[in-house]
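Contributing new records

If you add data, match the layout below exactly. Sequence lines come first and carry their own label; structure lines follow with theirs. Keep one chain per record. Anything else will be rejected by the validation script.
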Amino acid sequence: MTVTLATALSNVRSLLDEPQAQFWSDSELTNWINQACSEIARKVEWKRAQTTIAVTVGNQQYTGPADMYRIYRLEFRPTPGAGGTNTYTVEYRGYMEMDQIWGINQQWPASYPLYYTTWKVPPNLTILLYPVPSQAGNLTAYYYQQITPASATTDPIDALAGWEDATYDYAVYRALRKDNDPRWQDFKATYEDKLVAMVDATRTFQDQAGTFTTGQSALPSWLVSDGLY
């Protein structure tokens, strides 16, 4: 369920016991609500997105998503008619590590890229592919996305559904700390506890252990299967 900025402000003011703006303005509380959403997205990495980047023949460098925190996974798919039904995972390597792969031939061409590295920062993050693709296609970038700040009272706050109360705790602790009210420490502790719980609950959005049980012992499923199960 989407929570609007107006509802978030009302909930924060209820916790502050200040229904109408007196000490804290709506503008201040809005800033703290948006800061909470941004910090939670950075630390929990719950906001996930994907985008398609067109790949052209002979071009090694591409610009990553402008609204990203960091990339999780990169895939290459050739255009239809040129192996377009195949999807190739492009593995990440650090810039210095790439010397062990491309040596002195950084522009070596091949049908599709096997590795990528990055330089600069968003919104101008540069993605370098290797080998340099000799056929067109598309990169699919799976990444952790930045939030969209709420400004109008009808805007939804960019918080994970079911965890909006963490943003309220953050805004309240910031407001009370400004007022030198010692209760800010209680709200900060509650906020940080919820942050830890969010990391545990949303890392994979499921509760399976991912193990294969054999008798009295349990082993990771990837260690005992061929990847089909």
